[in-house]
Amino acid sequence: MEANKTKKLRSKRRVERTSNAVGYVILTVISIIWIIPYFYLILQSFRGEPGAYTTYLIPKEFTVDNYVKLFTDKSLFNFPRWYANTFITALFVCVIQTVIVLATSFALSRMRFRGRKGLMNLLLVLGMFPGFMSMTAVYFVLKEIGLTQSLVGLILVYVASSAMGYYISKGFFDTIPKSLDEAAKIDGASQHTIFFKIILPLAKPIVVYTVLTAFLAPWGEYMFSSLLMFGDQTKFNVANGLRQMLQRENIAQYFTRFCAGAVLVSVPIAALFIWLQKYYVEGVTGGAVKG
Amino acid sequence: MASLSLKHIYKVYPNGVKAVSDFCMEIADKEFIVFVGPSGCGKSTMLRMIAGLEDISAGELSIGDTVVNDVEPKDRDVAMVFQNYALYPHMSVYENIAFGLRVRKMSNAEIHERVLQASEILGIKDYLDRKPKEMSGGQRQRVSLGRAIVRDPKVMLLDEPLSNLDAKLRTQMRAEILKLHAKLNTTFIYVTHDQVEAMTMGTRIVVMKNGFVQQIDTPKNLYLYPGNKFVAGFIGTPQMSFFEGTMTKNGDKVDIAFKYSEAKISVPYEQLIKVRPKYLDGKTEVYIGIRSEDITLDPDAVAASPYKIKVVISHIEELGDESLIYGDINMQGDGYVESSTRVIIKAGFQHEYLAGQVYEAAINIDRMHFFDKETEETIVPRLPEVNDVDCEVKNGKMHFLGTSLPLPPALVSCPEGKGNMLLPSNALRFDGELKAKVVSCEQILGKYLVSLELGGRRLFAVTDEPKEVGAAKIGIDCKRITLSVGEAKFEPMEELVRFEGTFEKKKEKVDTEVRGKIKKKDAINFYLGIQGQHFPAPEFIAKKVFATLAPREVFSSPFYYDFTPYDVTIGKEGVPGTVESIADYGDEKFAKVRVGDKVVCIRTDSPVSGQVCLAPDFDKAGVVEAKRGIKLI
Fold first, then answer.
1. Fold for domain B234-372?
2. Is B488 on the interface with A (CB under 8 A)?
3. Could you please report the per-residue DSSP string of B137-150?
């Protein structure tokens, strides 16, 4: 009887081990496929040999020239300017959009007013239409008020529809017990105090999420930027600018520099993720109510 | 520390659901009030309205002398303890307790002192640096209490604070909350669905069901004198046994017959003298309630009692110190399920009882309860409403209880013969010529119940003032009596003068002084419309109407304007009506006036007839929103 039990246990363990092994192999293969383009990009950014394409993966000669020239050789492409443009745009959009999204979400989650449901549905439906549908109209409106070829115009376009992104953070605010607001209200807190002292500290993960998405969207955006800044290279963002390096006449000379630029573009985002990731996963409502 | 006044409070949600209806109560300073009732009865909604977390749809809520209907929660000086603690999870215990003080910009030194003091009272001084999630349920609830007491509020509101704790901790915290109440000397309002909590903690208990207050009284009075079947069943463990039956007055006895059973007992009428007379006809069905300790199987008690019924035992629950015996008064009945014949009997261990056997049980008739079958209200009110008296009309006089009174002109058409008179307890006055004796006088529910003896019969009078025991001279307010002789029946006079009307606005030119000159300026004035007549709306009515109804409802809703016959005068201007007759009750005369399709009674001294105009005194008006029946004033 006892021996039979041990045998069964062993066979169960063997099945578990095999299925784990198969799982890991599949995951490893997927990871390799996923990581190869990044690996290729980083290696190419350090390639010393000229030319657009090579038939080998690992460069024969390693150099940091591509990075240095990005910042020093501004004769054709002014990369530092594009970088600064992108950073400024993303920073402003990040701040303005975060404020709008969180405030909208708080209002829709916590306050009850006439037309609340209708407004929520309207925002949701509007958000389903792709942004580029309105591109031409937006361009002409901005042209009328003289905001084309201007970073202000671009920021305006990016933040204009911020409130439509309320859904995820509203969902998070909804999970924070309302009794906390009520307790604070009785304690003497205003809506303002409740938002800043109670809700926001509890909603760190969603604040971080909002900040990241608000920063990321303009950082890699291409379409609106290329439309709005058409004809003025000094106002380009990095996506738009780097695209210039891949034009037929430039690609042979600038491909490795393009790769270096692409690596540099991903640095702030990676840094941001590393800095904020602990909040991303931290659940904070434990102990708020019965547990 | 403050008293609270809750007047005709309603909570009506936009979809028309009434969560609380006509809640009236006066709460004295330092009282411990418990709201109790099943889920969805409106008790938490009422508490949240007091806290300011829910809007009050209609009515008036005062804390101290201030009406707080529109005052923000933070300015009401109340503190609240929530069922789920509602502690701020990102703050330490210290910060949780200090939060309310910080928001009020108190100095750090004072905050520190108060937090330490509160934490000491509640025994959480060692946990001040901890976060709520690092604490047990009981400790968290203490922090929640600490957060409430640290502000030294006028009123403490507790919303089922012990529901999330286990049974042992609940008992312990119950004692601690009582201790806290004694120490803080402040008004506590406590919501619970647990009747044991309510009974053990409250100085007074408010029993609620479906948004309506069922009864407000002390725990003991609720247990002994439940106002209706719901309260009787809700308060007390095990639940009161309810039977259906009829009561028949048979001389000086009343026969009580239990339905679906052979059981029958005969009790002296004196025991049931407070029962409303219409229930003693042997036809009107009633609910009979008996608590498990008011019926016994003890052979000695059964032998000594004349009030016995047969019970077949179905099963017995042993509780350790006593046992609960489940049985049925129908010999074919099943005592396992609740029915109109199931009975629960408490028993000690002196005697052994066997399931399946039939025993005789003795009922303590002093503690039986009776309820109307339709309304489920008690038919033995603590303040009896009416005395049923045999009488005879002869030679223009009413003869009753060995005395007589001349018939007033309003009743003079009553035929001669024997009949009976329903004499309401508020129709007995202490200013007449009839010689009676005050046997006792006790204060009940804010009024005085005076037991009188007249012609060897017990009569009950309800007064606002206490009366001394001994000889007294009494009179009868004839407009309130019901006199039945043969086929003839004279109903009491209708004392409510109700006009249907509207609330209207008019744009008018009003003389206004502008830089020393009188100029005509546009102003909006409000009027009460009754039968095509417009009366300027007194400010308090206009304020109340706008405070309780949505602006678009104010001018479209129908209203009732209520008065007493004394608050309406007959004059040259006012609501048009036609005098139909004059009811002369001797010392008072009333004109019966037809207004529209209704007849109202108006006090008058001079003879009036034909077309008249009624001028109501709107300062004394009661106002009811007619569509939803919301009493505004």
1. OB fold (Dihydrolipoamide Acetyltransferase, E2P) (2.40.50)
2. no
3. HHHHHHHHHHHHHT
The interaxial angle of helices A251-281 and A65-72, nearest 10 deg, is 100
8 Å CB contact of B88 and A288? yes
Contact criterion met (CB < 8 Å) for A182 and B80: yes
Nearest-CB residue to B103 (from A193, A286, A290): A193
Q: Say whether B497-631 and B234-372 share the same fold.
A: yes
Which site among A187, A199, A200, A289 would you substitute to test the B interface, given the most B Cβ atoms closer than 10 Å to its Cβ? A187
| Burial group, residue B322, by CB count within 10 angstroms (0-12, 13-18, 19+) | middle
* Sites in chain B below the pLDDT cut of 50: none
Whether A282 contacts A205, CB under 8 Å: yes
Q: What is the pLDDT of residues B303-346, one digit of tens each?
A: 999 999 999 999 999 888 889 999 999 888 887 888 889 999 99
B86 near A CB under 8 A: yes
- Left if phi > 0, otherwise alpha if psi is -120 to 50, otherwise beta: which for B506? beta
Tell which CATH classification among 3.40.190.10, 2.40.50.140, 3.40.50.300, 3.40.309.10 matches the domain B497-631: 2.40.50.140
Does residue B419 sit at the A interface (CB-CB below 8 Å)?
Answer: no
Looking at residue B231, its pLDDT comes to 94
Sheet-wide strand order for B308-318: B295-296, B358-363, B308-318, B323-328, B342-347
Contacts of A197 in chain B (CB under 8 A): 99
Contacts of B147 in chain A (CB under 8 A): 183, 187
In contact, A70 and A279? CB cutoff 8 Å: no
What are the domain boundaries of chain B?
A: 4-223, 234-372, 388-490, 497-631
CA–CA distance, B131 with B118 (Å, rounded to integer) = 17
> Which tokens is B514 given?
């502008």
CA separation for the pair B95, B49 (Å, rounded) = 27
Choose the closest CB to B87 out of A186, A284, A288: A288
B80 in A contact zone (CB under 8 Å) = yes
In CATH, the number for domain B4-223 is 3.40.50.300
